[in-house]
Amino acid sequence: SWLCSSRPYRGRVGGQRDVSHKSDEYAFHPPADAPPARLVMLVTWSLFMGYAALVTLQHRLKDEYDMIPHPQSSTAFTYASQVNYIGNLIFRLAHNFVFACLTPRGRVHLSLGAMVLAASILGGAICIGRSPWIGWVTLAYFIGGVSVGTFESNLLTCLTPLGHATKKWAILGMPLGFTTISVFGFLLLLAGAPLVSLYTLVAAGCITSMVVFARCVPRGDDGGDNGDGGGGTR
């Protein structure tokens, strides 16, 4: 289809080496004019919706938290929400070691799953469950930081064998995802939508993206299941 058009190429393509002996049936070297896997845009779109939800919805989440009986102090909430940046920084460097058993493609799935978990904790424990325990906020924001810090370099490793056109579609999804929450999400809140609806949107988007990434984005030999787990991020 137009959205999911990249196909595995086997054998010798454009004078490159024969990769047909590899166990991963999707390993390939596409020619320069290979059609892009446009649906990869949804993957970055969803993850960056989650990133925007962590960053731009902090004040709204604090307002929601303050309405819970016996909340922790504002200072405690501020410190709890800042661990997002700590997790992000640590795992931009440490994902190669902590997740050494996973391939870059596996780490992308882990990143999306982690963002689902972070959004589910904030939406479920705070917005719906009305829990005053500040540890939920700390845990959710740290997991969100792990997700963002692990995501970008591993996704690019997976997309490098697919060509520049696929990368362009992936990059396009980043500002679209952030804008979806920071602009349209706030419009929904102004219109009376509950805060939990945005966290639900993030979780649903990332779950959908896991399916899209698995089924519609071909595996290159640098990002498949038979690499060394580090790919081009080492």
UniProtKB/TrEMBL annotation:
The chain crosses the membrane at residues 39-57, 112-133, 139-162, 169-190, 196-214. Keywords: Membrane, Transmembrane, Transmembrane helix. It comes from the Eukaryota. This is Nodulin-like domain-containing protein. It comes from Prymnesium polylepis.
